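Thread: "does anyone have the structure for this chain?"

Original post by V.I.:
We have the sequence but no experimental structure in hand. Need at least a predicted one for the grant figures.
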Amino acid sequence: EQFFQPASALAEQVAGRIRQRFLDPVDSCAPIGSGGWFDFWRPTVPLEREARLEAPVERIPLLVRAGAVLPRVAPASSTARLSKDRLELHLYSPSDGARSESTLYTDAGDGPGYETGGFRVDRFSLHRDGPRLTLHWSHEGGFAWPYREIGLHAYGIGGIARVTVDGAELGPRDGRWVAAGPFETAVFEAV
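Reply from O.Q.:
Generated one for you, tokens below.
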């Protein structure tokens, strides 16, 4: 019977169904497994064994493992165009007393230089002890650190009262903590 309706009315019905199915935010509860997770888009609170996540078409649900160190840079059309101004390190706190490891590999991205040592492997270790989150950072390889600054973001330990980098207190800048370059240890202390 719909085929006999005016074309505009049919198109409106079809568009309404498409919009309802694909464009309206979907809010559903799903099991997420053990080990602790964070919602990438709202990372302030660790998720439980089940999570209710919105899933609008323009923002897919994305979970980050507790204990992960997620490096991010500004979006670019290719790796050749990546900004070298700042690397943002997003630290997702492991559970209290737990330790975790993450790795970042970097090279020039434009040839076989990695075969002769032109690479860098950065290893990040996170440890949570109550209201304190400690990041240890080590590296290997002959490739120079490519970023001018490092933005630091910590999630899952509450409000941050103090950050030290290699023993020196780091003041917030534009609402985040920014280090001048690679370091060995950063400590985040919650309120």
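V.I.: this helps a lot. Residues 1-15 have pLDDT under 50 and may be disordered.
O.Q.: and The radius of gyration is 22 Å.
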